[in-house]
Amino acid sequence: MSASMRLLCFALLLATLSSCGGSTGAPPQGSLDPEQDEAPAARPKRRQETKADLSQLPALSLEALSPAEAPAEETPRNLFAFEEDPAVVAERKRQAEEAAARAEEARKKAEEERKKREEELRLNPPPPQPPPITFHFVGYFGRPEARLGVFAGPSGTVLAEKGDSIFGTYKVVDIGYESAEIGFTGFQETQRIPLTGGK
């Protein structure tokens, strides 16, 4: 039995005993004086009943009768938070490190290739390229063996036959029916341009 239950039983027992009256006292034994035989017998005094002062009883608390419960600790819960397997974390870290190492190796290799090409170009520079043609072959007239071509450029229009230089750095190599072959001063390359008819 718990301490609270024992305390309750003791209080109930004390209240019961206090509320019950005392028993009536018996008259005193012995003979009366003959001269007083006719005297009325004295009424025995009744014991004065005492009532228990309930205010003196210890107060009972119903909360004391119930078993004590430890307050529940509220633990915040996050439905989206979970612990990952350490093996999974380690594997992901290893893969990331390998990818970073491969990227660094590729970068270094590309840098080495670039430097190698620059060094090759420095030691073996490419031959100079002829300038671009900035004029048009717009027509011709005359006999085939002595045909004159008409060429229109940014600085104007010129007439030229085979072997003539035009616009400073170009020369006429051949004049055909649908195109003209143009050479460049200081270069062996030639380029054929179409007849545009002034378009």
SSE inventory with pairings:
Elements: H1 3-19, H2 62-65, H3 86-123, E1 136-141, E2 148-153, E3 156-160, E4 165-166, E5 170-175, E6 179-184, E7 190-194
Antiparallel strand pairs: 1-2, 2-3, 4-5, 5-6, 6-7
Description:
The protein is an alpha+beta fold. Among the domains are: 85-125; 136-194, no CATH class. It is 30% helix and 18% strand. The protein has three helices and seven strands. It has helices spanning 3-19, 62-65, 86-123, and strands at 136-141, 148-153, 156-160, 165-166, 170-175, 179-184, 190-194. The protein has a four-stranded antiparallel β-sheet, with no helix packed on it. Strand 5 (170-175) and strand 6 form a beta hairpin. The two termini are 120 Å apart. Residues 22-37 have low confidence and may be disordered.
The secondary structure category is alpha+beta
Strand content: 15-25%
- Any idea what the shape is? rod-shaped
Number of strands: 7
Q: Strand order of the main beta sheet, please?
A: 4-5-6-7
The unreliable regions are 22-37
Give me a quick take on this structure.
The protein is an alpha+beta fold and 199 residues long. Helix content is 30%, strand content 18%. The strands form 2 sheets. Strands 4-5-6-7 form a 4-stranded antiparallel β-sheet, with no helix packed on it. Strands 1-2-3 form a 3-stranded antiparallel β-sheet, with no helix packed on it.
Features:
single chain; alpha+beta; four-stranded antiparallel sheet; three-stranded antiparallel sheet; 3 helices; 18% strand
